[in-house]
Amino acid sequence: MQQAFIILSSVSILAAYFIYEWSIVTGRTRPHRTTRFVIFIVAALGATSLFAGQDRVAVWLLGICAIQSLVVFLMSFKWGMGGWAKTDILCLAIALLGIIVWQLTDNPALGLYAAITADFAGMVPALIKTYRLPHTEYWLSYIFDVVAAGFTLLAIQKWELQGFSYPLYILVINIVMLILIFRPKLLPKPA
Questions:
Q1: Which of 7, 107, 115, 139 has a Cα at 20 to 30 A from 133?
Q2: Is residue 66 a contact partner of residue 40, using CB atoms and an 8 Å limit?
Q3: pLDDT digit string (tens) for 135-156?
Q4: CA 155, CA 15: separation in Å to the nearest integer?
Q5: Has residue 163 been placed in a domain?
Q6: How many other C-beta atoms lie within 10 A of the C-beta of residue 113?
Q7: Which of 166, 163, 173, 145 is nearest to 35 (CA)?
Q8: Among candidate residues 146, 175, 45, 143, the one with its CA nearest the CA of residue 103
Q9: Residue 191 falls within a domain, yes or no?
Q10: Structural domain containing residue 27
């Protein structure tokens, strides 16, 4: 059953990225450059860290994220927005600090938590952008991210904090993005 969940998670994350890339090209999504840069770096290093730590479940989620994040980051140069505001630079600095801490440790668990911190710092510009301009993100890709994280969590057989923390973070951050995207429809307009 674990293998089936890993496959379903991998297919879901691939679908999420293909939908996201399609939504960029069709003008439905304008990815935030700083966020996409940080997500690429964190996903690539995270996959490497999980692989080195002998993780054979969450590594698939992060490995696919790393490859697809590079594609989205490159697309953001043509179709994206942001990248040089003070908040963007501050979040990038925090993310880079988290990445440095992660890389300086020989402890895979500490490295993973530094990576999650770095990823969150990198997500802040996209969260702000989506709060202000919810129409610049396409909801369907985030649904697939939530599904992928859910299947990854279901595939975990040994529940240790290091093994489930990243998929749980991915689940939560994508739910937050969905709430921000749907916020204008969920909240009544002022009279």
A1: 115
A2: yes
A3: 999 999 999 999 999 999 999 8
A4: 19
A5: yes
A6: 20
A7: 173
A8: 45
A9: no
A10: 2-186
